[in-house]
Amino acid sequence: MAMNSEAGPSTERADEGPFGPLHYDGSGKEKGSDWKAGSAKIQIRRGELAVLKGAGASVIYEMAVRCFLELGRPAVLVDGGCQADPYEVAAIAKRLDRERREDAGGWSGGSGGGGGNGGGGGSGGGGRNGGGWGSGDDGGNGGSVGKGTSARARRVDEDEVLRNIHVARAFTAHQLEALIVSRLEPILERVRPAFVGVMSIDVLFFDEELDRYEARVMQARCVRTLRRLAREHNLMAAATESGAGARGGWRRW
């Protein structure tokens, strides 16, 4: 897939500065997490993976939407918790566009409600087999890549945003590992995103049928792969992790 080489006016800021601030509220938290309402400035830099403990899927959605609105670049998401919700993504795009117009000097950013199980679009391939890549609006094999200059010059089209967020859903731990370890890099080379996000990188590894040691090894392999891909492809990468029993926060890998 050909891609416009113009990254848009915000490339330098994204390369050097934080991906934030982001705002959290009660609906944007995973159950049992300790995220509090208010602003949390999260450093998401190119070449690194940030793991967000207890953050909801809406945090990943907002990063993906801002990736397109600010940089004119697509985003790739992996759904490990059955959270992909194109309706929430569209709502976040509409809100961010409104805030951009109200405050032309910068992004006041705010994450919407927590990730739901909304229907329609989101995961390519369909069915229970998981692993298919698709753009958020039609579940197909991806849409055209937008240009940063045009994306900022006119009112945002939610459908265009969804076409530039490519999503794959996993239903088992083995599917999630296969998506990240074996199938993620080819899609990165095809669509050349600026951001990769994983929703619930750990939930599927809590399966009682999995050997505990095997589950730890598989999850560690996923994290190592994400770190490598972020570094080698010069990406911003983030993953949410269950907040049960852990204080909300983030760490950089």
Structure commentary:
- With 253 residues, the chain is an alpha/beta fold.
- 36% of the residues lie in helices and 15% in strands.
- The chain has helices spanning 11-16, 57-71, 86-102, 148-153, 158-163, 173-191, 212-232; strands at residues 22-24, 38-40, 48-53, 75-79, 134-135, 165-169, 195-199, 236-241, 249-252.
- Strands 5-6-4-7-8-3-9 form a seven-stranded mixed β-sheet, with helices on both faces.
- Helix 6 (173-191) runs parallel beside helix 7.
Listing every helix as H and every strand as E from the N terminus to the C terminus, the arrangement reads HEEEHEHEHHEHEHEE
CATH topology: Rossmann fold
Strand order of the largest sheet: 5-6-4-7-8-3-9
Poorly predicted parts: 1-18, 23-35, 106-129, 137-153, 244-253
CATH architectural name: 3-Layer(aba) Sandwich
CATH top level class name: Alpha Beta
Q: How many structural domains in the coordinates?
A: 1
Separation, N- and C-terminal Cα atoms? 30 Å
Based on DSSP secondary structure assignment, what is the total number of beta strands? 9
Shape: globular
Outline the biggest β-sheet.
Answer: 7 strands, mixed
Radius of gyration based on Cα positions: 17 Å
The mean pLDDT is 72
Structural class: alpha/beta
Helix content: 25-40%
Throw out a few tags for this protein.
253 residues; disordered C terminus; Rossmann fold; alpha/beta; disordered N terminus; globular
Could you give a short description of this structure?
The chain is α/β, with parallel strands linked by helices. It has helices spanning about 10-15, 55-70, 85-100, 150-155, 160-165, 175-190, 210-230, and strands at about 20-25, 40, 50-55, 75-80, 135, 165-170, 195-200, 235-240, 250.
